[in-house]
Amino acid sequence: MTSQDKPILLNGNQAIAWGARLARPKVVPVYPITPQTPVLEQLTEFQAQGTFDAEIVLPESEHSVMSACIPASLVGVRVFTATASQGLLLMHELLHYASGARAPIVMANVNRTVASPWAFWPDQTDSLAQRDTGWIQYYVESAQEALDTVIQAYRVAEEVLVPTMVNLDAFYVSHAVEPVQVPSQALVDAYLPAFAPLHRLDTENVESWGNVVTQDMFYRHRQALDEAMALVPELAEQADQEWLKRTGRSHGVVERYRCDGASTVIVTMGSMCGTARDAVDSMRAAGMSVGLVKVRLFRPLPTAALREALTGIEEVIVLDRNYSPGLGGVLHQELRAALYGTSVTPRIHGLLAGVGGVNVSVDKIIEFVNQAGMHEAQPESLWVR
Amino acid sequence: MIKIEVASDPMLCSGHAACPGCIDALSVRHVLAAMGPDTMAVIPPSCMAIIAGPQPMSSLRIPVYQPTLEASAAAATGLRRALNAQGKHDTQVIVLAGDGGTYDIGFQCLSSAAERNEDFLYFCLDNEGYMNTGAQKSSSTPHFARTGSTPAGKTSRKKNLTEIMAAHGVPYVATASAGHLPDLLRKVAKAKAMRGTRIISLLIPCMDGWGVADDDGLKTARYAVESGAYPLYEVEDGRNYTLNHTTKTRPIADYLALQRRYRHMQADDIETLQAEIDDGWETLQHRAAASRR
After folding, report:
1. What is the arithmetic mean of pLDDT over B62-72?
2. A22 and A144 both lie in a single domain
3. Computed over its alpha carbons, how large is the radius of gyration of chain B?
4. Distance from CA of B136 to the nearest CA of A (A)
5. Which residues are CB-neighbours of A205 under 8 A, at least 6 positions away?
6. Which domain holds residue A12?
7. Which of its termini does chain A have fewer beta carbons within 10 Å around, N or C?
8. How confident is the model at residue A6 (pLDDT cuts 50, 70, 90)?
9. Mutate which of A74, A211, A214, A216 to test chain B, going by most B C-beta atoms within 10 A?
10. Helix (H, G, I), strand (E, B), or coil: what is residue A277?
C-alpha cells in the first residue's frame, strides 16, 4: 500500500524535513550550518505555512540546540534537530549527555569535512568521530531513504530510549534532487505510536535527572545502555520490515546487493553505495562475481548480519570516506574487529577513498576491485584515488 | 522587627549537603517556598547541585534537571518549550545557577535566551567565585579579592551582569540578598507573576570561599548592601531603574574587614576600591533618577 501515487521532487535536505514533519516532533531546536541549512529553512517554512505544529527554538549555537533538546525530550515530547560537521562536533559533550539521559532525540547530520583547513565536502569523519557517544547511527544513500529513515529512527529510538542520528552525505545526498514518495500523515501516524515515556520530568509526579551517582550506579547505568544497544539491530530490522509492509519500501540494516554467488564484495556506507551499485552492475555484466554490502546501521554495528553477509566471500573491499588519524578507515577497522576470531575470514582490503570529498567514480571502484585481487590484504588502510 | 511568614512545608528539605551557615541553602529555601510546587528547576554543576543531593536522594520537592555547566539557559529553554507543547503554561521553569555557570561559561546561552525572551526565571546564586571547586576566581569575583587562582588578589573588576542583562531589554533584572529578606521575597513574587526572561542575582556570602565566620553570613550580606558593594535594585524592560536600598551608610572597609579574602589589602587598595564603589553608586543614582522623570 503506497500512500501517494505521484512522487515529488525533493533533495535530501528537504526529504529530511518532510520526514521530520511527518513524525510530528513537538520541540525542534536548530541552528543553521552548510550544508544542513535547507533542513532548517524547510521546517520554519512548514511552520509558517501552518503545516508543522512544533516549538521551533533558534538559539545561538549547536551547543545550545542539543542542550535544549535533552530536557525537552525528558519532559516527554518528541524532539528533532539537524546539524553538520562543526556543529556536530560542538555538540560532542551533549551527545554523551543525551544518551546518558536516555533521551530518544532524532537528529539528521549532513556529513561534511571537519576543519581545519575549512572545507565543505562530503566526508563522514564528523559523525564517525561520535561513534562512542551512545547514539544509534544510520547512514543513508538517497533522499527517499533519508525521509524513510527519519521516521524509522523514531520508532527504534523511542523503543529503546536511545538517541539516533541519521547521516546523509553533503551535496551527493543533501542537495541532489530526485523523485521521493512522501507517505501520508495517516500512514505515518499509524506506523509511529505517540511518544509516552514511563519516566519524565513532571511537577505532578516528581522525578529528577542528573544527580550525582555512585560507581556502582554508573556501572549499571552503562550496562543498561549496552543492553538497549544490543536490541537495536533486531528492532531496526523490524522497523524496516513494518515500513515495507506499509509503503513497499525497505532499506535493510545491512543490505546485500547482488551478493548471490559473489566471491568479492564492496563494503561501504552512504552515497558511495550508489556509485558502487553501478560498478557492481558493470562488473557483473563483464562476468565478474562482485556484490555490494551496504552498512546502513553503523551504531550499534550489526556484527551478526555482517558476519552472515561476508560468509564465504574471498575478497572484501572496504571504501572509507573518512579518516581516523593513527587508525585509518573507521569502517575498515571496525569490520576487521567484527570478523576477528570468527570463522568468517575474507581478505579485507581497506581503502581510504573519497576522503575530503574526492570524487570516487564507477571506473575507479572497478579499478580498486581489480587491484585488490592482485595484492595481499594489509592490516592498514591504504590511500587510493 | 519585621515578622516574615515562611511556609511550614518547605520545598528545600533538611538533611541537605550544604556547609554550616550556608547562605546558598538559606536563600534557595526562601526562593522555592515562594515559587511553590508547580515549578521545575535547572541546576548546573555548582554548590546548589551538591546541596540538591546525590541520586536517589533529592533535597528539593520539585523535579530537577541538572545540565552541563555551560548550558542552563538553553536547558531551561528546552524544558519551557516542551511544557508549552504539553499545554503546561503555568508550570514555572527556574534556573538555580552559580556565578561561574552564569557570568562565565554559561553566559553565551544566557544572552541568547534573553534575546529570545524565553519564559523562565533565572536565579544567579552569586558567591563571587568557583566555590564548589575550592574557591577560584570567576568574572564575578570583585577587584582585589584573593582566590585560589588569584593568590595576590584579583587585578580586574567584577563584571556587571545586571547591566548586561538589562541591556537585553528583558522584562525584569534585579539584585537581591537574603540579608534583606522582605525585599528578596517581594522580588521573587513580582518576577513569578511576570512572563519572559527574568533574572535575579542573589549575593551569597560564602563562609569558606570568602573566609567568613559560620554565623556571619547574613551580616556580611547586609554590609555588602549598606556599603554599596552590592546595591539592591531592579531594572524593568531594560529602562526603568529602581534603587531598593537607597542609602549608602558604611565605608567599604567595614565590609572588607569581615572577610579573609580581603585581608591582604593595603590602605591605598582600599581607597581605590572605595572610589570604584562610589563611582558605581553614582551611576546607579543617575539611572534611577532618569527613570523617575
Report:
1. 98
2. yes
3. 18
4. 22
5. none
6. 8-247
7. N
8. confident
9. A211
10. helix
